Amino acid sequence: MEDTDTLLALLSSLLDHPISDHAVLLDALVKHDGNVEKAARYLSRENMRGKRQAQKRKRTASLDDWLSPCTSEASPSGTRSKNTSKLPSKRAAAASSASAKSVQDDLIPSSSTRRASSSSHGKTSRETSISLSGSPCKVKPVTNNEFMNILRHPNSSNSSKPVPPKFPPLTLGTPVLVSDHTPCTLHPSILPSELACRLFYTMMNESRDWKRNKWWLFDRVVESPHRTSFYARGPASGTESPDLQEAAQYWYNGRPTAPPSAFPPAMEEACEIIERVVNGEMGRRKRFPLEWGGAPPDIDNPAEVILWRANVAAANRYEGTKESVGFHSDQLTNLGPYPTIASLSLGTSRVFRLREVIPSNEKDKRSARTYNIPLQHNSLVIMHASCQETFKHAVPPQNTIDLFHPPFPPPPSLFSPEDVEVASSNSRINITFRFYRPDYRAELTPRCRCGVPCILRPDMKNRYTDNKATSGTSGERNAEPPSTKKDIVAKYWWTCYAGAQNEGKGCNFWKVMDVTAEGRGPFVEI
Ligand SMILES: O=C(O)CCC(=O)C(=O)O
Ligand SMILES: [Fe+2]
User: Fold this and answer.
1) Mutation choice for ligand 1 from 312, 325, 375, 383, CB with most ligand atoms inside 8 A
2) How many distinct structural domains can be found in the chain?
3) Where do the Fe2OG dioxygenase domain residues begin and end (predicted)?
4) Tell me, what CATH number does 421's domain have?
């Protein structure tokens, strides 16, 4: 789960000269197949080259000076040489974005494109003054894009390919904006405020026992930059108890963990409210063919249609500004395809970041955009079906956060009212409520040659198939079925995950999920 963050941390740790710009680090990783050591060597070389070029620039006249000798007096030459020196890095960003292979992009989704998005499509015009025989004359303003095209080698592959427009990150501050741009919905204030506060105190107390997950990456052990824990809910009355023990064991990066805790009472209360909201929304949304289509798992109340029962929850605590989770999509091993995940935020407000993974066959037509959703105390984001297949999500580090002051005093059994940890808290608690599907229960998970349960992931880069009837496109509210019938995930992969816990050594096992051969279902439509 920590893929991007971990790679970045490792890469930074290998550099002699720190680089704070994540986009630069990500570009280097993409260029080198996620190989941290090669990326580090490359950045060191680039650093040396940059220094040499800077020295050379001092000795020679700038390109601007050469193009427009007369203007060096008319405007400060420092400004112009600064613009000129940016050009090579823009070209490098465009080139690396074009060369990123699908597998790396899946690992590191936002790198080069994000960097390019912020730099290469500015509408700023370069207004160049040219002097002929010493008299200044104005020429037509040239956009940065036009200027790049002039400089580009005519045979370079970029010259023939149209580059899709890129847009800066967008903050989605309202429920309407969230549902218009993403396959998610936002409920800014979901629980009665007393319950939200009680649950915050409960989870802050529980989190004293939560652990940072550890796993192997290449040849070293890395740690998650936040603490986490896993909870299993008791069975609904009248139903059989699903065995969630084994699934819970492998919840995080294949690491065998302690048995899951039961939902504390405040979490159960919150879950019942959230479950009703989620089911209400699912009932109104178009459903995807591979969603769970079985009998309602809870038969408590036959009048109410129950499509989704939160039978497990994962909880995270992010303390301070720097604790985070990198871009990832949630493993589908026990959730199955097109899961719905309900994510509750308590305590300090943090940004939840979403970014679509653009399928390979659309890369030339459109580019991914980053969406930032500020999540206040007591807000709920529902990641609806297709979110895990088409978007990655993250909680990035921030420079600043607002301390959270709970509106009710803490229960004396847990904290004293002056306890700074809760009276003026810098922590965010996140609880993701999930439905572990019976047809994806742990005993049915294929094992790799290492004997360890595989993980299930969608092939996000090649997600279209042409031959199945289907429902709405991700991110489009109330979308009509497209006439091309091209919006369901074609492939999911079962892959070895043993390496995460076995000194980085796995068996590279993979196989395509075959729902018929594996006896999965029932699905909404198949
Ligand atoms: O803290 C959050 O909002 C996201 C947590 C998350 O992505 C996860 O637990 O998989
Ligand atoms: Fe997640």
Assistant:
1) 325
2) 2
3) 309-437
4) 2.60.120.590
